[in-house]
Specification:
The chain is built from six helices and nine strands. The protein has 217 residues and is an alpha/beta fold. It has a seven-stranded parallel β-sheet, sandwiched between helices. A two-stranded antiparallel ribbon has the order 1-2.
Length: 217
């Protein structure tokens, strides 16, 4: 624990129930120097869901620091039916420090599941799959489509590129025919039960973690 930093908050009631408070209280002792620190957070405490490294930092400072070490994989999600999983996928992409998240289709998406992590994660928009594919070609990024379909390679065996776009479909219908046609590689997640598919946000987390297992340093 750094000198002057307030200790972690003691257990106490949270909104909606009992439990420990998140974060730290007001800074105690001499104030730290540095443009990364937020005067309001130092004065009133930092209750955000961020790692200790970023306690009391401004959002801009956190994003700038993340940008120095983002991983070279991008995450793309089709959004034709306002899928509620998108927020959770954005949150996972932030946890693994993806280069960016790309929303394809509807511009508006439900941010509730992101738990404000979209403030720290670059999010782009593409009107169509063709637009995403054109962007990927310009940046020499192969598109990896994740869907349990005939011919797909189990993700734990696939040759996942280091720099790539991991493309996910919607809950239920999965990836559109246009998305499957635009992909350079098709991967699937091994399953052993009775259900045909797993939750889209869970599937995205599994594929992202497989990339991290292979490539993250």
């Amino acid at each position: 624990m750094n000198e002057g930093r307030s200790p972690e908050a003691r257990p106490g009631p949270e909104a909606g129930g009992d439990g420990p408070e998140i974060g730290v209280g007001p800074w105690e002792g001499p104030l730290p120097e540095g443009a990364e620190y937020d005067p309001e957070l130092l004065a009133h405490g930092d209750r955000r869901n961020v790692v200790d490294r970023y306690r009391y930092w401004t959002v801009d400072a956190i994003v700038a620091d993340l940008d120095t070490r983002r991983h070279p994989f991008h995450v793309a999600i089709e959004n034709w039916q306002h899928d509620l999983n998108i927020g959770s996928i954005v949150r996972t992409a932030n946890a693994f420090n993806a280069a960016a998240v790309h929303i394809v289709g509807r511009r508006r998406w439900n941010r509730r599941g992101a738990m404000v992590t979209d403030r720290y994660q670059h999010v782009a928009h593409h009107e169509t799959i063709a637009d995403l594919a054109a962007w990927a070609r310009i940046h020499s990024l192969p598109v990896v489509a994740a869907d349990n379909l005939p011919g797909a390679v189990p993700v734990d065996e696939a040759e996942l590129p280091r720099a790539c776009v991991l493309l996910f479909g919607q809950e239920g219908p999965g990836l559109s025919p246009e998305a499957l046609a635009a992909a350079d590689l098709h991967v699937e997640i091994r399953q052993f039960g009775s259900t045909r598919s797993i939750n889209a946000a869970a599937a995205a987390a599994i594929v992202m973690h497989e990339w991290v297992r292979r490539w993250a340093v």
